[in-house]
Amino acid sequence: MEQSTEQAMQRGGAPRHIEINLERLNQLGMVTHDGGRTAVAEDFRIIKRPLLRNARGDHDVAALRHGNLIVVTSALPGEGKTYCAVNLAMSIAMEMDITVLLVDADVARPSVLKVLGLPAEPGLMDILLREQTELSDVILRTNVATLSILPAGRANKHATELLASRSMSRLLTEIAERYADRIVIFDSPPLLMTTEASVLAAQMGQIVMVVESETTSQHAVKEALRHIEQCPHVSLIYNKSKAFPGGEYYGYYD
């Protein structure tokens, strides 16, 4: 039986360790450590490289401020942003000297734990609502040693205000600066459906917007980009393209 968020909050103690069914994810065509060199895995190797350069810097370019905070969003629901966020997190977790925190910030319709086949847990909203709840109380360790998860937690009608609050700013600073080797991937709400998405995006170092091939209109893409025009580092993933036989293709545009 699945435990409620309230029951999980009452457990307290050390960070929980959860088991992700990696074989199930592999069967769904998603990126896993042992999944081999699949087309999707190779696509996300390409997608992650410029994001990592921006986050960590290289010989010629300094790292972006909070460049290790990367939000994955879309214009509309159903474009595949959660699958892209999970795949991106899994791919980055394969790096030799990086740890990844995957945050479900789609607080109205959380999907990360569902995609991973896991029950609901306390998380982000619980930290912002309860002063006695710390980040370490709700982070979930996983059987992928370099990957942890921060669930969305309980829904709240004041989610926009909470995400725009000083508490959220302090939390983001803690997440960004506490561990130098950490990349944080946020699964965000769609930009054209909620105000939470643009509020969250404004606080990120990098934005990845997922666009569904042959479905999302040009008007919707332009309108979504207008919502994040104040953010200088935006990249696009062209998702679910059938341009190549044998499955989905993830194109990357910076």
TrEMBL record:
It comes from the Bacteria. It catalyses: L-tyrosyl-[protein] + ATP = O-phospho-L-tyrosyl-[protein] + ADP + H(+). Belongs to the CpsD/CapB family. It comes from Rugamonas rivuli. Residues 70-230 form the AAA domain. It is an enzyme of class 2 (transferase). This is non-specific protein-tyrosine kinase. The keyword ATP-binding applies. Keywords: ATP-binding, Kinase, Nucleotide-binding, Transferase, Tyrosine-protein kinase. One of its GO terms (cellular component) is plasma membrane. Its EC number is 2.7.10.2. One of its GO terms (molecular function) is protein tyrosine kinase activity.
